[in-house]
UniProtKB/TrEMBL annotation:
This is AlkA N-terminal domain-containing protein. Residues 251-275 are annotated as: Disordered. Keywords: Activator, DNA-binding, Methyltransferase, Transcription, Transcription regulation, Transferase. It comes from the Bacteria. The keyword Hydrolase does not apply. Pfam families: Ada_Zn_binding (PF02805), AlkA_N (PF06029), HTH_18 (PF12833). PANTHER family: ARAC SUBFAMILY, HTH-TYPE TRANSCRIPTIONAL ACTIVATOR RHAS-RELATED. The keyword Transcription applies. InterPro entries: Ada-like_dom_sf, Ada_DNA_repair_Zn-bd, AlkA_N, AlkA_N_sf, AraC_XylS_family_regulators, DNA_glycosylase, HhH_base_excis_C, Homeodomain-like_sf. Its cofactor is Zn(2+). Residues 85-183 form the HTH araC/xylS-type domain.
């Protein structure tokens, strides 16, 4: 995409590009998301940046109207397996705050200098600046949603000093922390406890997504696999709330997300400047509440919920690629915005998959080895066991081998883990066949391009084969029962014949695709 194309997206206020790039206005000194509702600036006054951190580094402050720091993340980082893609996933998970640039470089297997050089070349900002932008966004959320004292809040957001915190907030938002809190225009919802603990009502958040979002399907998926004690789903279809416990770096938490999605008000672009495909594409959000024992875990908890619900996906790119396929086209049209769910805890997901059986089987592990919450929260009673707790002789052999590998680092399932290396290490373990390893890669590592094992997938589906599988599973009504990603026969070859296309679209689901999912139940 060149700058002229980016400017067209700004003129049409095209929300499809929110998070993909940012634009700044030299006459006002602010930077915005492409869908900002403000008057479109003149082309000569506009500069484009690949990241919010790059715009901040160039001296621009965030727009108070469109809040560019709150956009969905770029789907590019989920697709890419190179150093930059992996680094962005690690930074989103809070590695810089916990381990510094040296820790990030060690995880990536490169020198700190190489990491700095490549991130700066592609994103216009190095790892420290990218992490700083993330901290500032976390601080703004805490200022506007909690009553935490500013001093405690600064350290909870990851800042090293109060001076650094105040300078950063003034530089990015052109406001002091007190002014940002007052600008929320309402009392703090629920307040907060002293000592860095979250309020009884939790921290309320809106987790943004781009484009349409098939909430009913993803809540169906999670409800069918909910492990008692660790997860629960309340309410009826269309008004459900998914709840789960989280094991985090500084403590624990309970996360809640509502099925009913919010929607941004459509914005009227300048006449003649809108792309037809962009109409109705403003996206929306999931309402979420986080109850954390230590607010330093806030940004990490947010990222884990975003990965679980696949909120950084680009449904437009997925629909453009898969919708052109004669087999998948009708399925994509029938379920716009279908997502490929990830995992809030990759190691937990891997253990559940290798264990097999219904969710109640995993619940037995939870009751025997999981850490109880200080106080039960509804049906939530435990954290899922850490791998180190599942290495005893009484644990099923395949699960024990996996947990030993996770505990000693032989298998790494971190947010930015090398997916190819993780897949090879998984397949080397007893009880982990290629199909199970592929399912773990799809969900635990958030890989959007996992194809069927033992079957045929078209290259035309790349890099969105995971979404293709979810569409096929939805249409067949079977669902992925154990990560056994298998097709019993090649899918029908593409055809340009209108009659052939009609016969494909009107055939029964099992005639249109031969999808077999092995019958041992999955978490």
């Amino acid at each position: 995409m060149d700058d002229e194309t980016r400017y067209e997206a700004v003129c049409s206020r095209d929300a499809r590009f929110d998070g993909e790039f940012f634009f700044a206005v030299v006459t006002t000194g602010i930077y915005c998301r492409p869908s900002c509702p403000a008057v479109t600036p003149k082309r000569g006054n506009v500069r484009f940046y690949p990241s919010a951190a790059a715009a901040q580094g160039a001296g621009f402050r965030a727009c108070r109207r469109c809040r560019p720091d709150a956009v969905p993340g770029s789907a590019e980082w989920n697709v890419r397996a190179d150093l930059v893609g992996r680094a962005m996933r690690f930074i989103g998970d809070g590695v810089i705050d916990r381990e510094g640039v040296g820790g990030l470089a060690r995880r990536l297997g490169y020198s700190a200098r190489q990491v700095q050089r490549q991130l700066t070349a592609e994103l216009g900002a190095g790892p420290v600046a990218l992490a700083r932008a993330r901290r500032a966004h976390t601080a703004r959320l805490l200022l506007q949603t909690t009553g935490l004292p500013v001093t405690d809040l600064a350290f909870a957001a990851g800042f090293a000093s109060i001076r650094q915190f105040n300078d950063t907030m003034r530089e990015i938002y052109a406001s002091t922390p007190s002014e940002l809190r007052a600008a929320a225009g309402k009392g703090v919802p629920g307040g907060a406890r002293a000592g860095g603990q979250a309020a009884p009502g939790g921290v309320p958040l809106r987790l943004a997504h781009r484009g349409p979002y098939a909430a009913a399907e993803i809540f169906d998926f999670l409800q069918a696999r909910a492990v008692p004690g660790v997860e629960e789903v309340r309410g009826g279809r269309g008004a459900r709330t998914y709840r789960r416990t989280l094991r985090l770096a500084h403590g624990s938490g309970v996360a809640e997300a509502d099925e009913h999605t919010g929607a941004r008000q459509p914005r009227r672009p300048r006449a003649g400047r809108v792309c037809p495909a962009a109409r109705g594409a403003d996206g929306g959000w999931l309402e979420c509440r986080l109850h954390l024992t230590d607010l330093r875990d806030l940004s990490t908890a947010v990222q884990r919920m975003r990965r679980l619900f696949d909120l950084d996906a680009d449904p437009f790119a997925v629909a453009e690629r898969l919708g052109a396929d004669p087999l998948l086209g009708p399925l994509v049209a029938a379920r716009p915005g279908l997502r490929s769910p990830g995992a809030a805890d990759p190691e937990e997901l891997a253990v559940r998959i290798v264990l097999g059986g219904p969710p109640e089987r995993a619940a037995e592990l939870v009751r025997a080895y999981g850490k109880p919450l200080d106080a039960a929260d509804g049906a939530l009673t435990h954290l899922f066991p850490e791998p180190a707790a599942l290495t005893g002789a009484d644990v099923p052999g395949a699960v024990r081998a996996l947990c030993v590998a996770l505990a000693d680092g032989t298998v790494t399932l971190d947010a930015g883990a090398d997916r190819e290396a993780a897949g090879r290490a998984l397949r080397a373990l007893p009880g982990v066949d290629p199909a199970v390893a592929a399912y773990i890669r799809m969900r635990a590592l958030g890989d959007p391009d996992v194809g069927p094992v033992g079957g045929v997938a078209r290259d035309a589906w790349r890099p969105w084969r995971s979404y293709a599988l979810h569409h096929l599973w939805q249409e067949s009504g079977t669902g992925p029962q154990a990560g056994q990603l298998t097709m019993t026969a090649p899918v029908q070859a593409p055809t340009t014949s209108r009659q052939a296309r009609s016969s494909v679209s009107t055939a029964s689901p099992m005639d249109r695709m031969a999808v077999r999912v092995a019958a041992h139940a999955s978490p």
